[in-house]
């Protein structure tokens, strides 16, 4: 039976995502009410610039006082789509204290302070849902938290940042420049308010921390995630990748150690074979592989950024939280977490593609090979090409077998000290084989 008192929603932020949340709440009001068992009403919208024209939003709902809005006492659910750590953290905490549940898309905050926020929510008997924080429209948080709660997830591997995938895809397929592609991604609403978060890998690292935490039932914070951005990827790297039958993607990889006693989480650009399903993930799409003991391999795929796809995930959470409210319950809280240690990047074992500028003279190849051998890094293939500019230099590309990252770092450090090695042009991990 439909209850008549509407559930009141406070929307914090009305930008790329928030404006779409408001639009869908209005246009799909009847459907949402039917699914929830009660009407939902937009009770207030907090923004920074009150004078901005916002289509479909009654001006009297708009306020710059987000704190007063979450403290009103009649708000059932706060939807936080402001972004950033503060004031979002304080506003969410205040919302719980004043009897509201929260839906958030804020991965930066959840990766930094998710555990503390969950504790406050539970203390006040409220829900905290955040499906939109990872991989846009793709249902991933709930499948990991709920559907796979009885299985043992060992690995999560994927493309979780739409902006960087859009840029890398453009660089690969149309030869577009980095800045031009970033401007386009920003105009399309994919990039963060500060796109450094995307291109330097902070956004993907925050998502990796969230994914590793829920997949392995442990606490992983942003600082635990090894991170490299994609700003140094060049057209020469793409050309090298092509020669190997690969492309380049910014990957998030979370793994449970074989003995189950620790986990790793990392974000970096990597070469992956063109035959791998992640290689054909185009534009701002995301895709995530989950490997679980009983389920085997699962793949989640879909739009990873943009107002409308992200709003879909927010609305899904809003319906779930409102249903809980109508039933007088809360959703599943945090499962009992163990604290598994997070191993350093040096322990990660993978393959590497190293591109060196070397002197083109006898014995250089042997010297380089000796350095690899001394560090216990086994070479798979070597390709040398003399430069045609008469400078007596050659380009040497070494692809290794699997080796610990620490051994590779030691190798590169030693290579840099060789007189015959003029420079290390690039180091790229090779994944997904
Ligand atoms: N864009 C995307 O594709 C995705 C975004 N997200 C996440 O969703 C959240 C929102 O992103 P997005 O919509 O792109 O961001 P925008 O920058 O487009 O929107 C931010 C909104 O928050 C408002 N705002 C900022 N600071 C305050 C404040 N102190 N008080 C009140 N309002 C404030 C802004 O007001 P005003 O309009 O006046 O400037 C704006 O309406 C972020 O956490 C982001 O990481 C998650 C998945 C995908
Ligand atoms: N900036 C993010 C938005 C979604 O999380 C991205 O590009 O993926």
UniProtKB/TrEMBL annotation:
The keyword NADP applies. Residues 353-429 form the ACT domain. The keyword Nucleotide-binding does not apply. Its EC number is 1.1.1.3. Catalyzes the conversion of L-aspartate-beta-semialdehyde (L-Asa) to L-homoserine (L-Hse), the third step in the biosynthesis of threonine and methionine from aspartate. It comes from Streptomyces pyxinae. InterPro entries: ACT-like_dom_sf (IPR045865), ACT_dom (IPR002912), Asp/hSer_DH_NAD-bd (IPR005106), HDH (IPR016204), HDH_cat (IPR001342), HDH_CS (IPR019811), NAD(P)-bd_dom_sf (IPR036291). Belongs to the homoserine dehydrogenase family. CDD domains: ACT_HSDH-Hom. It catalyses: L-homoserine + NAD(+) = L-aspartate 4-semialdehyde + NADH + H(+); L-homoserine + NADP(+) = L-aspartate 4-semialdehyde + NADPH + H(+). Pathway: Amino-acid biosynthesis; L-threonine biosynthesis; L-threonine from L-aspartate: step 3/5; Amino-acid biosynthesis; L-methionine biosynthesis via de novo pathway; L-homoserine from L-aspartate: step 3/3. Transmembrane segments: none annotated. Keywords: Amino-acid biosynthesis, Methionine biosynthesis, NADP, Oxidoreductase, Sodium, Threonine biosynthesis. It holds the Pfam family NAD_binding_3. Its cofactor is a metal cation. This is Homoserine dehydrogenase.
């Amino acid at each position: 039976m439909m209850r008549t008192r509407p559930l009141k929603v406070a929307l914090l932020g009305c930008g790329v995502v928030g404006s779409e949340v408001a639009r869908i709440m209005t246009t799909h009001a009847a459907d949402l009410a039917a699914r929830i068992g009660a009407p939902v009403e937009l009770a207030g919208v907090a923004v920074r610039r009150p004078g901005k024209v916002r289509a479909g939003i009654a001006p009297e709902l708009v306020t710059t006082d987000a704190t007063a809005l979450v403290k009103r006492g009649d708000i059932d659910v706060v939807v936080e789509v402001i972004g950033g750590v503060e004031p979002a953290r304080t506003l969410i905490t205040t919302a719980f204290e004043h009897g509201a549940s929260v839906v958030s898309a804020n991965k930066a905050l959840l990766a930094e302070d998710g555990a503390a926020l969950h504790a406050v929510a539970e203390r006040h008997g409220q829900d905290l849902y955040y499906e939109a924080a990872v991989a846009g429209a793709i249902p991933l948080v709930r499948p990991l938290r709920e559907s796979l709660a009885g299985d043992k997830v060992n690995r999560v591997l994927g493309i979780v940042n739409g902006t960087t995938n859009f840029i890398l895809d453009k660089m690969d397929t149309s030869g577009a420049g980095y800045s031009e592609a970033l401007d386009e991604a920003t105009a399309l609403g994919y990039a963060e308010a500060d796109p450094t978060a995307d291109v330097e890998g902070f956004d993907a690292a925050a998502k990796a921390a969230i994914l590793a935490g829920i997949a392995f039932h442990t606490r992983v914070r942003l600082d635990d995630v090894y991170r490299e951005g994609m700003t140094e990827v060049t057209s020469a790297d793409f050309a090298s990748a092509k020669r190997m039958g690969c492309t380049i993607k910014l990957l998030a990889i979370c793994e449970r150690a074989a003995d189950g006693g620790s986990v790793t989480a990392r974000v970096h650009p990597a070469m992956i074979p063109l035959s791998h399903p992640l290689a054909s993930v185009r534009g701002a799409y995301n895709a995530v592989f989950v490997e679980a003991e009983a389920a085997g391999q699962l793949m989640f795929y879909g739009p990873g950024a943009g107002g409308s796809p992200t709003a879909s995930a927010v609305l899904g959470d809003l319906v779930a939280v409102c249903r809980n409210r109508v039933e007088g319950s809360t959703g599943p809280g945090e499962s009992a977490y163990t604290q598994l240690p997070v191993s350093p990047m040096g322990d990660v074992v993978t393959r590497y593609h190293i591109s060196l500028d070397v002197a083109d003279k006898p014995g250089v190849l042997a010297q380089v090979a000796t350095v690899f051998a001394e560090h216990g890094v086994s070479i798979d293939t070597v390709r040398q090409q003399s430069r045609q500019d008469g400078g007596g230099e050659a380009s040497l590309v070494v692809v290794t077998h699997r080796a610990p990252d620490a051994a590779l770092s030691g190798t590169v450090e030693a290579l840099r000290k060789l007189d015959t090695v003029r420079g290390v042009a690039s180091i790229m991990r090779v994944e997904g084989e």
